[in-house]
Amino acid sequence: MRSLPKSEDLTSLVVRTDFGDDVRWEAFIAALRSTDEYPVATFVSDPAYAGVTIQQLVDADAAAEPDDREFYLFVADATTLADDEFPLLAVDLDTEPGRSFRVPVRFYGDVSANLSIANLDFADFADAVDATGTYRGSD
What we know:
Blueprint: E1 12-16, H1 22-33, E2 41-44, H2 54-62, E3 72-76, H3 78-82, E4 88-92, E5 100-103, H4 105-116, H5 122-126
Parallel strand pairs: 1-2, 1-3
Antiparallel strand pairs: 3-4, 4-5
C-alpha cells in the first residue's frame, strides 16, 4: 500500500475508503465544508485506499519517515457515507495506534481543530465517547 499523503497546514487528513457512491461522497464533502468557513480537511479520494483496514493505515503511517508521519486521521468508510450524520472514523496513529472512535460531521470541527494544534490529545476525545463509540461533543 502506498504511504499516506501529508495533511495541509492546520487541516486533518480525511481518507476515503468506500468508493460505492460518488454522490454520497460529494454530499459528505459539502456537509464537512459547511461546518467551518476555513479549510478543515485534506481530502484523499484515491482508489488505492479502497477497502483498506485500520491496521493497513497504521502500518502505512509507521513506514513513513518520522517527519512525514501523521498523528491521527479520519476515515470516510461505508458507515460514514451510509449515515446522514456522516460519522467519520477517527484513528490514532501515534500514542495508541489503531484506537478509533466515530465522530459525526457536526462535531468534526471541534475534534479536528483541537487535534491539529495539539490542544487536546486523541485520548481526550476517545475517552469521551458514548455507548456506541461515538463522540458527540463535550458536556
